[in-house]
Amino acid sequence: MSNRDVKNTSSYQLRYAAGLYWLLDMEQRGVPYHRPLALNEVGADIWKLLAQGEEEVEIAEKLSAEYQVSPEEIREDIAQFRQQLEQAGIGVCEEI
Q: Most buried in the list 29, 48, 68, 72, measured by CB within 10 Å?
């Protein structure tokens, strides 16, 4: 998964408030209202790397080293994150 898999990463901003990271749609028009998506620290790190154009393999390697877990565990986290984005309507494009 790369930033090309997420519809327009530049229209979203990541903010930290109330002990959580929040992914905000900065281009929404109000109706329908899209609630901010709450992310944990790993989700926020995945988003940041996606926004920088990193590929899934690179993200798994970097976060595996940072969190001292296996790349397989990080790839599972990325898959769950991908589902979370889809459910929130942020949209992840089909694999190319």
A: 48
Q: Is residue 59 part of a domain?
A: yes
Q: Is residue 46 part of a domain?
A: yes
Q: State yes or no: cis peptide before 36, omega within 30 of 0.
A: no
pTM: 0.80
**DSSP 8-state assignment for residue 23:** E
Q: CB–CB of 55/2 below 8 Å?
A: yes
Tell me which residues of the chain have a pLDDT lower than 70.
1-8, 91-96
What element of type H or E holds 89? none
Range of the domain at 74: 3-87
